[in-house]
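Page header: ASSEMBLY MODEL / four components / 698 residues total.
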Amino acid sequence: MKNGKVTLGEIARQAGTSTMTVSAVLNGSRSNTRVADETRKRIEKLAAELNYSPNAMARGLRRQRTDTIGVLFTWAGSRTIHNLYSMTVLDGIVAGAATAGYHILLYTQRWESVAASAAAFADQRTDGMIVVAPLESSDVVAGLTELGIPLAVISSSVKDSCVPGVNIDNDTGMTLGLDHLAALGHTQIAYVGPTPERRSMRERHDVYLRWMAEHELPVPEGYVLADLNIGESLQPDLERLLRLPEPPTAVFAANDDLAVEVLEAARTVGLSVPEQLSVVGFDDVLVASLTTPKLTTIRLPLYEMGQQAAQLLVARIEGRSESEGPSVQIISPELIVRDSTAAAPAVHS
Amino acid sequence: MKNGKVTLGEIARQAGTSTMTVSAVLNGSRSNTRVADETRKRIEKLAAELNYSPNAMARGLRRQRTDTIGVLFTWAGSRTIHNLYSMTVLDGIVAGAATAGYHILLYTQRWESVAASAAAFADQRTDGMIVVAPLESSDVVAGLTELGIPLAVISSSVKDSCVPGVNIDNDTGMTLGLDHLAALGHTQIAYVGPTPERRSMRERHDVYLRWMAEHELPVPEGYVLADLNIGESLQPDLERLLRLPEPPTAVFAANDDLAVEVLEAARTVGLSVPEQLSVVGFDDVLVASLTTPKLTTIRLPLYEMGQQAAQLLVARIEGRSESEGPSVQIISPELIVRDSTAAAPAVHS
DNA sequence: CGAGTTTGATTTAACGATAAATCAGAGTAA
DNA sequence: TTACTCTGATTTATCGTTAAATCAAACTCG
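Prediction written out in full:
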């Protein structure tokens, strides 16, 4: 077992051959060097005994490949994977990378701007990168692309981009939820969403407004709260929304975390969900099925999205995707009806 | 910006110096090579213009350091960071590594056994590893130690081990919760816990039994469910527990995930929490404050634990901890009283 | 029996960075 | 003038691996 310092040279010395022969044996068929069966066995036995493992740095340097995929999250304060969305996506990425034989590197460096950060991400530490839900204000994707780094983007900030990745069909997702509410007789539907720093959030907001207009439903003053940030105290704002003179009978939250906050606000305001207020979330993150009542939400296959992004990236890295062109997968969300939505209450007036 | 292929040699060529001079300039004071101010400036300017970034593989090979910390979770099926515990710990590790300038590598390789996996983890890809909550049946820690890999273990499987890391004082944690229940007048306290594959879980179980014995409280048949696994359908077992002829008035769950399941079971059985049944969890994972009622639980500073493990490991890697000996931090949990515990109901009989 | 092929290797030269040793020239002192 | 120091570099060697070229001996064939 030693202290992990077994090199090809050491094996070669003990086997009485050159290092190249050892390399050829341990790399199987990728070399054109011929080796006699007897020599091969001797070397394989030695390698197993000494518990040889190729030095990843040396191999990476020579092969110009690291068998590692970098993942880049947007930092929020001092945290990166602080929510269930990121966690599930990462879990999927790990699984996808695992099947392809790649490891995952989490860059702890923040992306500031092309000028400030580009160099740090061009250190050849990884064969490619997965960028998760970049902000629209960021130049990460453009920057990394320009550096020639193979990329896959999850929930890209650019529509129809030529960057491969996995995007969400927010139009379908929102419409699914809104139609569901409409079918339940709701006409007073409010929208709460986070600060639209990400395209998805802006889109969800837009689709809501468009859908409301198309259905000729009014969006009264105060019905739209589109700059809420989890972590800050949202309760006052949400309670104000629910206490409006003509309060909404349904609230569509742009993500589950906010939906949970709405549930909380409803409780303090004394509105029972779903009898007096319907709540719809988005993402179907783990907590959605743990709340009381369980959350009706728009399901995003986050784990699978991570897996697919990894597969896409690996295909790109290994040059298998040239023929298929820039492959952007569009994910169609699914409506999951649970217990937080019900028929609209009878109108009082 | 080019395609990220700027090497020291390229800069040297353009600056009209040797690569060594460039290396000396860009590495600041770590070299003993003297460089004239004018030359220094010229090189720095060029490096900035060309957006030079040292090749991490080459540097790693030469320096025998990678500035990367490996993290090893135990796989559960095809998932690794599938729960809030892992997520929060990892988030903390990332933060801790970030401040020390280290990146994080998630090995996608599973640890099977010393014989099967040791080599794969000795590939010099990382400067050290953090092992998160290993199973007692696993030989990871011993194996990696034998390979000479600097280690930090979170929630180790070995008590008082000589491996640095962060351990949990389960004795204090459980006692805190049990005393709380006792103070509320509970005498019929049940225990539910996951299969004791991890030392922590076995300990919590043991402390429960010991505490009950010390307080001369009976542990009736069926009061202990110590091999439940999240993911499987636990509801039947939990409902059976709550429907026992002489049912518990309080249930202590060895982790929050199980506590949530207990809450669910209570709901279907028709027991109101906390009026008819008190529930205590363990970990204080994110969901604990989102359930209805909010969970009384034993708080573990998971994020901070991750940070500390990273710091500990970095200290060890950089040789700063030799004087302090094997540093094992013991984390004292904290009781967080929320809404799932209340005075024991009056006895019926 | 000499020319060409097959087998089983070896040698050489990188990959990019850096530790350590060496070196050329100017300045200083005896 | 000779010896020594200081400045500002350069050269050399190496980290461990592997692509590509080369090589020696045995074997085949006309």
